[in-house]
Design a protein that fits this description.
- The protein is mainly alpha-helical.
- It contains twelve helices and no strands.
- The chain is globular and about 70 Å long.
Length: about 280
């Protein structure tokens, strides 16, 4: 065997061995985390957890009804706010991103927001909203998670629209269609599955965010749907209960963590399934 080929083959095998060991280490840690979560969280899953409010300190029983409702409200409204803004901004970037300095600046700011720590977003909303209003509220939490979701939707929409073949656009232009109609009716329709995937990924991202809600929505011990007041939510309740000295609070924290994990997992599976079914071409 050629010595050069033998040396390269040895280097290749050593590299593959280290890659396999790194992958195995990551999978073992992930499996360990998920197994611990399932074992400790599954025991807390029952009807009472879904139908009762959070218990008082030292109280028996209780559930997570009020934080579940609060999280659903904030994530749902946040999605309604971020989705149209993100999609329209993504269309603007895809259509005018190469020609307009405003579009290039928007893309730059979006990239910064994508990598910004979520706690910074929470502090930003606290400074411009909570500090001026004078109290925490569900609206503040909704605005914070919307700011986290918007750049995800923008970049996904922008990237998906770039996958549309130029011949499709040229054919639409040759028929006399205006630019806005080509963008909305041709390009966006061709990649709607990918855009929906981006929205679902954004929902999965904001569903488990804790840091921004600590500075905006905070928490509420009681059942409340008033978005102008502090409102209970799963991430903050899990954080609070997990550090408490009460066994039933810790058990509920494990149950809530399992609920969020499987919700996010279901959203990711759904989004990847939708994306694999529709590929523009």
């Amino acid at each position: 065997m050629n010595p050069v080929y033998r040396r390269r083959l040895l280097q290749h095998r050593i590299g593959m061995l280290f890659s396999f060991l790194a992958m195995a280490a990551g999978l073992i840690v992930l499996a360990w985390i998920l197994l611990t979560l399932v074992i400790k969280g599954f025991s807390a899953i029952n009807i009472g957890m879904l139908t009762q409010n959070t218990p008082s300190p030292g109280g028996d029983g209780g559930g997570l009804l009020n934080p579940i409702i609060g999280s659903l409200m904030m994530v749902g409204i946040g999605t309604l706010i971020s989705t149209p803004i993100g999609i329209l901004a993504g269309i603007y970037l895809a259509e005018y991103g190469e020609e307009s300095k405003l579009a290039q600046t928007t893309r730059f700011v979006t990239d910064i927001m994508l990598s910004a720590p979520s706690i910074v977003i929470g502090l930003f909303v606290y400074a411009i909203y909570v500090a001026n209003v004078g109290h925490f509220s569900g609206w503040a939490g909704t605005f914070a998670i919307s700011l986290i979701a918007i750049p995800v939707v923008v970049r996904t929409t922008d990237n998906m629209l770039k996958l549309v073949p130029s011949s499709l656009r040229e054919a639409a232009f040759s028929l006399g269609a205006p630019r806005w109609k080509v963008a909305m009716m041709i390009r966006l329709r061709a990649v709607k599955a990918g855009v929906v995937t981006g929205v679902l990924l954004a929902v999965a991202r904001i569903s488990g965010e804790t840091a921004p809600l600590l500075f905006t929505a905070l928490n509420n011990q009681f059942f409340s749907t008033n978005m102008n007041q502090p409102i209970a939510n799963l991430p903050v309740v899990i954080n609070q209960f997990a550090m408490s000295p009460y066994d039933n609070w810790v058990a509920l924290a494990w149950g809530g963590a399992l609920l969020i994990t499987f919700s996010v997992l279901a959203l990711n599976i759904l989004s990847r399934t939708m994306f694999s079914q529709r590929v523009p071409g």
